[in-house]
Batch of 2 targets.
Target 1
Amino acid sequence: MTAQRIHNFNAGPAALPLPVLEKIQASFLNFNDSGMSITEISHRSSHFDAVINDAVERARQLLKLDDTWHVLFIQGGASLQFAMIPMNFLGQGQTADYINTGTWSTKAIKEAQIQKKTIQVTASSEDKNFSYIPEAIPCTPGARYVHITTNNTIKGTRFAQFPETGGIPLVADMSSDIFSRPLPMEKFGLIYAGAQKNLGPSGTCMVSIKKDFLETAEDDLPSMLKYSTYAAKNSMYNTPPCFGIYTIGLVLKWIQEQFGTLEKMAAFNEQKAAILYDVIDGSGFYRGTARKDSRSLMNVTFRLPTEELEKKFVADALKKGMGGLKGHRSVGGCRASIYNAATMESVMALKEFMTSFEKENG
Amino acid sequence: MTAQRIHNFNAGPAALPLPVLEKIQASFLNFNDSGMSITEISHRSSHFDAVINDAVERARQLLKLDDTWHVLFIQGGASLQFAMIPMNFLGQGQTADYINTGTWSTKAIKEAQIQKKTIQVTASSEDKNFSYIPEAIPCTPGARYVHITTNNTIKGTRFAQFPETGGIPLVADMSSDIFSRPLPMEKFGLIYAGAQKNLGPSGTCMVSIKKDFLETAEDDLPSMLKYSTYAAKNSMYNTPPCFGIYTIGLVLKWIQEQFGTLEKMAAFNEQKAAILYDVIDGSGFYRGTARKDSRSLMNVTFRLPTEELEKKFVADALKKGMGGLKGHRSVGGCRASIYNAATMESVMALKEFMTSFEKENG
């Protein structure tokens, strides 16, 4: 940790790799010898072409996407994707399945329903406050897609394996675990992720779509709400969120340079999460909120014996330079978000703090 | 000009005030003693509340907006506004007028038509390649709004005065001249501006809506496509484009500290534009493309005797540290974009270059 920097356990916007921030800072007045800030260069320039093409290429390399896939950058966050997906893929008489594993899945379902699209919620873990990932997931014959949220930031769960759908493409909100592990891309038709957890600053959503899936999309839609508009123009039908795309490219470069592959990134994430879950499981003081087989590697959610102790935990941690440990306002408790950029140093600092806090207050 | 920085005449993304860039750079690893970058702080934190409230308040002060107005930040650029405006304000049986003054107006019209909304193009300057602003502008009785583009970046024209509409609210795309001059806000129902010309980095669109106008909007729309969603949550229904909003706040602060009011900002802009138009008008070499009474103060568009000379002009200027002078790819020629952040030093450098280039090549 650099002097003055805290250990940042925010759920999103979240910690970014320090080398990436330092690189942005160093070149902020003069990007790539252009004599301009990255925030001042034209998106129609060769400077920016190189930026966006680099980000796309690195995403392709890490996810092993061949040219049957588009890699797009769209504004509006995952929340706009909740609306665009049914808008683009559910025409008259078509239907899709949704699996409800928490707050964000519920919102995705709502945005399809607002548009009066025909969808089925084929599985849900609402019966136990979304503390687990459902196993038995039936599919509706002829469904256009099955929508899932791969990692549930608020409830601290994730799909460790992805559902068998009998060939129906998965459409997945990966906002909180994109690039944290390798993916069986052959199962997916579309994946999307708001940048602000694992990728970059808020304001950019990365979307990858299989080309043959895109070809089945509705066409009679406003330009900015059609995936085909972005696919046809390398995400530059209008001015894209340049600073966000630039940062995402740097973050992907950092993953490649530091870890090489998503297999190695995943191993590091498993190691970090295990350290915190071991503290929780070895204690009678902390209590994990997610079922063990459904635990997220990105968002470690836990409770303390009382709400007073939870408040004290969050406040004392902040005094020791650890921020963002309060649980989501909708569920309470504590949460340590440890995305790709969370360092081992941060995780070890939290482990030590948890141990000493338990000793002093347990 | 700081060493290594160029005089940036880009049309957008465009020059930002150097003191703003320096401030962002200096605090990029530790925003406001948070121990985090502005790109890493939670939008639900008191840190970010202060950022967004400051930006909103400064926009209100400069535009003299009382609490009958919302000030919102929305992603997707002006292009998404082209779709959202008819979506929100044209219900069954309702109609609106559009004035067509160039590329962006044409796109706004197209996005209403894609949605099969009933609109009329009541005035257009297409007959003369959009080189002027139409004077006689009839209004359709009962129209919900009259849409205009206040400044036409590509054609180099602007509405010097705003149309009389007999009380029908103007809805205005101000992407390229927002905060460049005072506005008679009583004429408007909604104004919007993509940030990347006069406000900040690309990826954020500022939208101000009169509350009573918003109350007439359609409700049965996807959450992210309804203005009321943003109005109800201070633009934070989902994670907003935090870095963009932060930068916009700094730019507005810079206007207030450097100029005080939009009247003074406008005077500076008039002074800068006059310097370049005087070179053009005093020359038999350069030829302005916009009718004099319709000339933009933000985008000075001009031709040289031949396309070869235009290419040489742009290339020679770049060698002398002046960038972004190529006209829009759809019209050719040359264009100097001199938004609020363009310095007098940059304008004087361009004036001198234009004069010497004419001497050498005229």
Note: The mean pLDDT of chain B is 97.
Target 2
Amino acid sequence: MAKIALFPGSFDPFTKGHQNIVERALPLFDRLVIGIGRNTTKQTLYTPEERQQQIAALFANEPRIEVQIYDILTIDFAKSVGAQYVLRGVRTMADFEYERTIADVNKRLAGLETVLLFADADTASISSSLVRELKAFGKDVTDFLP
Amino acid sequence: MAKIALFPGSFDPFTKGHQNIVERALPLFDRLVIGIGRNTTKQTLYTPEERQQQIAALFANEPRIEVQIYDILTIDFAKSVGAQYVLRGVRTMADFEYERTIADVNKRLAGLETVLLFADADTASISSSLVRELKAFGKDVTDFLP
Amino acid sequence: MAKIALFPGSFDPFTKGHQNIVERALPLFDRLVIGIGRNTTKQTLYTPEERQQQIAALFANEPRIEVQIYDILTIDFAKSVGAQYVLRGVRTMADFEYERTIADVNKRLAGLETVLLFADADTASISSSLVRELKAFGKDVTDFLP
Amino acid sequence: MAKIALFPGSFDPFTKGHQNIVERALPLFDRLVIGIGRNTTKQTLYTPEERQQQIAALFANEPRIEVQIYDILTIDFAKSVGAQYVLRGVRTMADFEYERTIADVNKRLAGLETVLLFADADTASISSSLVRELKAFGKDVTDFLP
Amino acid sequence: MAKIALFPGSFDPFTKGHQNIVERALPLFDRLVIGIGRNTTKQTLYTPEERQQQIAALFANEPRIEVQIYDILTIDFAKSVGAQYVLRGVRTMADFEYERTIADVNKRLAGLETVLLFADADTASISSSLVRELKAFGKDVTDFLP
Amino acid sequence: MAKIALFPGSFDPFTKGHQNIVERALPLFDRLVIGIGRNTTKQTLYTPEERQQQIAALFANEPRIEVQIYDILTIDFAKSVGAQYVLRGVRTMADFEYERTIADVNKRLAGLETVLLFADADTASISSSLVRELKAFGKDVTDFLP
């Protein structure tokens, strides 16, 4: 059976930190679906469709990576793409605790397994919200993006 | 290239919690080496050779799992068995922080990638040291062992 | 003097996790008041009055349990019902730290003592916000509710 | 049924922090057993018997408090004194995580319930090991002891 | 070169905890700028100008302390006042982790060094949000303010 | 009054991480005393005198830095060198919690103020014990040392 992982997130924007996780995890799976959760209540920097284009362009040469937008529960989306795994990057304890709770629920409700990689030390402080804030103040953020 | 993971530990004894991590991680890899670190300064419940036999017997029907004893640095042992990955189970924050530091060093010194799985909620409190302590007081510990 | 504990929360909805804390704590007290904090700024799944009915029905056979709605400070509500104790369930570190700060303030301002129980491992991942989210996506949540 | 709590520890020595937990917890129980675990491998400041005398003298006027020495498993000692509860004071996250694991095991193996109180802010940094270290260097430690 | 520190925050209101950090840190620096971040989206208890007056009055006799309002990025404001240091008080782990991420970014983007002091145990539970909440319910909060 | 800081530790050996903390903290103080605690019960890689020589050689051109060996309580040694500050580098939560307790005690017993700097991300995983372990297995550790 093909090993399929879902890497879910908002990715607004997709940072070097996200890229790093995807590239390190890819060898473990046959297919990796990057799932952009659509959140209609939050103001965003890029529309989901823009994010999808940006990420797809980044991995254009990697046929095992696919980028999709979803607006259902993550466990239902995982099922719809055939994923048995959820991929997550963690660096802080707050991340860790949050992921542990989500992972327990994903396993209990849908039998989904969560695979964690540590964010690399040099990308660990890069978050999408930081990038958005810097951009809002007119800063150059290209260093943080792929 | 074959994907090989090293699952290093003392495993004195190998608990249901360890078994759970091995079984959940196995599908991700082509080969999984359970590495028993020999520690000559600690008093142990079982000798490394006894532990090797117990674990090997447990996975006798799984040709992709191998059990070895080592007394060198974990990164050197990983290299010697061709492992690109280190597998670890985590449940507590203390685990998490400890693993993060080790993972950083393993990556920097040897390019080893660490893959984390959350210990399942119902095996999370089972540790080898707990089993040793209970056994020392004459308790039945079969519930905690494979 | 009767030992009276306040178990304060939003309880939107009251989960199996909450039920578990109440049932385990009840033997310690003469009376246990479940206090539903009214929050007029948040959108809720159930009105406070609906939650009161649901919880009261659940404990209909337990005369020592009382369910009330309040919209004043928790310390003032505790005083108004004669509670010397605040009861809280904790599982994560984030919970723990949050409760420690609140407990310090409750003690300093009102002499209230906080009694903590660990959430049971199998209900630890159940939160009201999780249940609300699952319900919003049409999932069956009866497993998480009393 | 009488509510009996066990407050287990080394208490080498019994500090103001321990005293504070005992006094705050006492109203919750009918009987509180302070259990001094005998550890034959550690060097101690006071013998278990000396500690027993010191603690017993401190609570001489409180008939509901009893001080005993034990050298069996804590869960077995709890059973032998009829305790349904284990009492613990926590302040740090490390404490919290340690207690959570022990509490899970105590519940699973013996049905024991753990009740946690937060250490008061002004006694939170006082530990027996700190007192022992200061004493070893000839410091006056009376401020930290009852 | 004069050593200049920026102590940034909302300070709505400036509490005894903030005062404590400022007074303890002052000897380390030649000049300490208390920077009030203007946040136009949050409802506030006091306007930034009111906060500026209150804090300036408190330190009227300390010529090395200056109070300013800013509405740019903290790193840009630090640069504009010539600060090489950011001063922060921490007590909880959540604080610590949050500050670590911000400090990494401040250093990477602007070469700013972060200096941490532990909040004193007796002011550690005092936060501006707590004071605002108590005040909203008509409580006397003078104990928490300078 | 001269601002004097004590940077206490075992420094067996003194790593790049230690060097980084010293260099970043030096501008804050008039004098910085690196205090090597003598521990007669632990096996060490270098004698305290060797460590003193190594560290002194490293900072030979910095007259404000002094390296001393001590075998008394840290608070007493701080007093003997006139230090009003203790300097510490932190990266992990476990560090943070440990330092918080020590800092509370140092302040209460001796009025010592603790100043924390975050360990830089790229030296955060380097510890003396790691270096000792690698060296014991014949690894080249020059990358981790000044």
Note: Strands of chain F lie at 4-9, 31-37, 65-70, 85-90, 113-118.
